[in-house]
Design goal:
heterodimer; A: about 260 residues; alpha/beta; Rossmann fold; six-stranded mixed beta sheet; four-stranded antiparallel beta sheet; globular; B: about 350 residues; mainly alpha; ABC transporter involved in vitamin B12 uptake, BtuC; two-stranded antiparallel sheet; 16 helices; 2 strands; about 75% helix
């Protein structure tokens, strides 16, 4: 479990997060959604320790502040929103950076980069320069690196975590579904996933739990069906939204209502 | 030089570690050959082959041969190797730390800071209380150079880096300012120096291995060696740092501690190198850049390869400096600048299309 209590974040004089409580259970895809500037990415950065914050974050029962970087790195991997890279590393070399700590010791460790690239749909891209890839390909290569870092979703019964900041923002619809399936598989195998999401429909299709942020506070949190209602979404996004459930899938679909 | 890019394209798998190991072996062989050639070259005309033949026949070495080989050429050889390796490694580490291939202790004012430290020690060392002078002994100049380089690196990093991002423009401009300031302070010290100190300073400032001796080496070598021994621990962290400070930390790198260690290593290697050989430019920027084209930027291989190639290139430059106008010799700094300047310009041209400086 990743549990954040009373998280406050300020940038200068402006308060970005006002005492947010957040809980994510393993075995689930936990989505954080909300309009632009609602604080969802800031919440994820507080969870990863990238921004200074008040309150506490605990991972699998231990306060993150008391764990060394390598101890944290063994329990969770973080996918940044944009990955600038210095120096001409090949895609293989970038993905290999995910081999850290215990991961690098296993007998099959050196095969992991190629396997991870295959899973994100970049098989055969290992020899390309990372900087020569398109934005979407770079995002998937970074995801492969993150996957290598927490290749086993569970280690001795303890779940490991994927923290993803808008993992599908720059991808086409086919790769969006592929990457969301990957995250869902990781959760099904016992790992935990926290993903900041923009696309409400993908969220509805793949997430089991949703936290909806508005103006630095949690507006609603719970199962998708409880949070994604016309009323709550309309209030969060400030426009008329209709949630419908098409028969074959069973997931919620969110459609904007054109105002006549 | 685009040929280099094409010739050394990575393989389809993108794993360049096998190639890097091969390059390391080749460089080690090359260094050995150049070292032997360097040992056999010199104004005195003592030939290594002749000496070796005599020795094999069981004859005692003559006094002249022994002095030339063991008291003149050998300390110069070891100094050249250590200084070349130290300059190249500290260039590579600094570039990794700043995430930029243009960062080099010589260019961003760290060399000048180390120089200021060394000049301070030469000119004002006599004012130290007796116990401090006794304690520092011969190590005074290398230690002062190290402190100067360390302070410069620290200031530079603080100024140029904000929230884990280093601005290239700020880094270069801050480097120019630091370099100018150190240069001006050095100038003041030169002004108040006495004649004997002035001779020391001039000799040292030109950048030369000619003053190499076992005594100087004994003072500076431990600092250079320690600094370079620290770098293998930095390799993985510097690789991760290429993704940014936050990503490096998520990969388990203790970023702040690693940055402190990197800054100390750069200051130690640069400071001690400057202390024994003055300002020798461009090794730190040209060597890592050429190697990145061939074996890639993985610091696990880049750092040792930089040490080997830096040592080999400096010995080569020293040989050129010794024979080109023999029996006189050029300051080696002139040779490395003539060779390195154009390569540096070429690096800038190559990058012009990729990033906006």
């Amino acid at each position: 479990m990743i549990e954040a209590t009373d998280i406050t974040v300020s940038l200068g004089r402006q308060r970005i997060l006002h005492g947010v409580d957040f809980t994510a259970l393993p075995g689930r895809l936990n989505a954080i959604v909300g309009p632009n500037g609602s604080g969802k990415t800031t919440l994820l950065r507080a969870l990863t320790g990238e921004v200074a914050h008040g309150g506490t974050v605990a991972i699998n029962g231990t306060d993150c502040a008391r764990l060394a970087p390598w101890e944290l790195a063994e329990q969770r991997a973080v996918l940044p929103q944009s990955g600038a890279l210095a120096f001409p590393f090949t895609v293989h070399e970038v993905v290999r950076l995910g081999l850290s700590g215990r991961n690098a010791l296993g007998p099959d460790a050196e095969t992991l980069p190629a396997r991870a690239l295959e899973r994100v749909g970049l098989a055969g891209y290992g020899g390309r320069y990372f900087q020569e890839l398109s934005g979407g390909e770079q995002a998937r290569a970074q995801l492969a690196r993150v996957l290598v870092q927490v290749w086993q979703p569970m280690v001795r019964g303890v779940p490991r975590w994927l923290l993803l900041d808008e993992p599908v923002a720059s991808l086409d619809i086919g790769h969006q579904v592929q990457i969301m399936r990957l995250a869902a598989d990781f959760a099904r195998a016992g790992g935990g996933v926290i993903a900041v999401m923009h696309d409400l429909n993908l969220t509805a299709m793949f997430a089991q739990s949703v936290t909806l942020m508005l103006e630095g506070r949690v507006l609603a949190a719970g199962p998708v069906g409880a949070v994604f209602t016309d009323d709550i979404l309309g209030r969060a996004y400030g426009c008329a939204l209709r949630v419908s459930t098409p028969p074959p899938q069973g997931g919620a679909f969110v459609l904007p209502q054109a105002v006549a | 030089m685009a040929v280099l890019d094409l010739a050394f394209r990575p393989t389809a798998e993108g794993d360049r570690s096998a190639r890097a190991r091969l390059v390391l072996a080749v460089l080690a062989g090359l260094l050995l050959l150049i070292a032997l050639a360097s040992l056999g070259t010199g104004a005195s005309g003592v030939s290594l082959l002749a000496v070796a033949a005599d020795w094999l026949r069981g004859e005692e070495l003559g006094l002249r041969e022994r002095v030339v080989l063991f008291d003149i050429r050998l300390p110069r050889l070891v100094t050249g190797m250590l200084v070349g390796a130290a300059l190249a490694v500290s260039g590579a580490v600094m570039q990794g730390l700043f995430r930029n291939p243009l960062a080099d202790p010589g260019i961003v004012g760290v060399g000048a800071g180390a120089g200021l430290g060394a000049v301070l020690a030469i000119v004002l060392g006599g004012l130290l209380p007796a116990w401090a002078a006794a304690m520092a002994g011969m190590h005074l100049v290398p230690i002062a150079a190290f402190l100067g380089g360390w302070a410069s690196t620290l200031i530079l990093y603080r100024v140029a880096t904000r929230r884990g991002r280093t601005s290239v423009a700020t880094m270069l401009l801050a480097g120019i300012a630091l370099g100018a300031l150190s240069g001006a302070l050095t100038g003041i010290l030169v002004y108040i120096a006495d004649d004997r100190q002035l001779r020391d300073l001039t000799f040292w400032g030109l950048g030369s291995l000619a003053g190499a001796s076992w005594a100087k080496l004994a003072a500076a070598a431990p600092v250079m060696a320690l600094a370079m021994l620290a770098t293998p621990f930095l390799a993985r962290a510097l690789n991760a740092l290429a993704l940014g400070e936050a990503a490096a930390s998520h990969l388990g790198v203790p970023v702040q501690r690693m940055k402190n260690l990197a800054i100390l290593a750069v200051a130690g290697a640069t400071g001690a190198a400057v202390a024994v050989s003055g300002g020798i430019g461009f090794i730190g920027i040209v060597v890592p850049h050429l190697l990145r084209l061939v074996i890639g930027p993985d610091h696990r291989f880049l750092l040792p390869a930089a040490a080997l190639l830096g040592a080999a290139l400096l010995l080569l430059a020293d040989m050129i400096a010794r024979v080109i106008i023999a029996p006189a010799e050029l300051p080696i700094g002139i040779v490395t600048a003539v060779l390195g300047g154009p390569v540096f310009l070429w690096i800038l041209l190559r990058r012009r299309g990729i990033v906006d400086l």
